[in-house]
């Protein structure tokens, strides 16, 4: 009887230790990923590239949302700095929309002084992964293979990871304006969301995209 109780206690102890170990590993994995999201968000790499990639966001009848405008303004600034001779805008459209995100982005960049013949709209993609894969195909078709990504700071690591997986040499110089960075709350929201989205991508190689709070 005592032997059976002792064996049961031993099993229960090992189950508890295993559960604690799994929880600790999960915390380390999540915490480490969140740290990397935060670290890459702070990087501004202005190394010369073949292109500047401005990732799409919501647009309304051709007018970029505040999140999209911040990304586009950064893309225009990178072009003026001579980081790359070509700016790529990307993104499809919702049912009923007249403009794609790529077209709205192109038109906005022209108003910011970027020559129309220096802009390549890629009107494809409803999430980051689809968009980046479409851009990689468009750049490779032109013999180009490097890009600097303009997006929100917290989006940088996932976008860079996807771009490199798609065969591009990619680095980041994110916007420092817009709803994604206005408040501590929006910054924390972005880090948490991107940590989960990056872990999901690394596990499944599918995208998990959600609108930024304040993307309007």
TrEMBL record:
GO-annotated cellular components: plasma membrane
Source lineage: Bacteria, Bacillati, Actinomycetota, Actinomycetes, Mycobacteriales
Record's keyword terms, sorted: Membrane, Transmembrane, Transmembrane helix
Organism, scientific name: Speluncibacter jeojiensis
Name of protein: YdcF family protein
Transmembrane feature ranges: 20-38
All copies of domain DUF218, residue ranges: 50-194
Pfam families: DUF218
């Amino acid at each position: 009887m005592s032997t059976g109780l002792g064996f049961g206690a031993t099993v229960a102890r090992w189950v508890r230790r295993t559960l604690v170990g799994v929880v600790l590993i999960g915390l380390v994995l999540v915490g480490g990923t969140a740290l990397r999201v935060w670290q890459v968000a702070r990087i501004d790499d202005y190394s010369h590239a073949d292109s500047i990639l401005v990732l799409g966001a919501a647009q309304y009848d051709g007018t970029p949302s505040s999140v999209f405008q911040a990304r586009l303004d950064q893309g225009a600034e990178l072009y003026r700095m001579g980081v790359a001779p070509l700016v790529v805008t990307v993104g499809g459209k919702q049912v009923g929309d007249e403009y794609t995100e790529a077209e709205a982005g192109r038109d906005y960049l022209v108003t910011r002084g970027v020559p129309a013949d220096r802009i390549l709209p890629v009107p494809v993609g409803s999430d980051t992964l689809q968009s980046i894969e479409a851009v990689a195909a468009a750049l490779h078709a032109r013999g180009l293979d490097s890009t600097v990504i303009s997006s929100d700071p917290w989006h940088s690591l996932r976008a860079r990871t996807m771009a490199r997986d798609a065969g591009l040499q990619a680095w980041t110089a994110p916007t420092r304006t817009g709803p994604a960075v206005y408040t501590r709350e929006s910054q924390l929201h972005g880090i948490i969301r991107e940590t989960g989205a990056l872990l999901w991508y690394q596990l499944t190689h599918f995208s998990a995209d959600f609108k930024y709070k304040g993307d309007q």
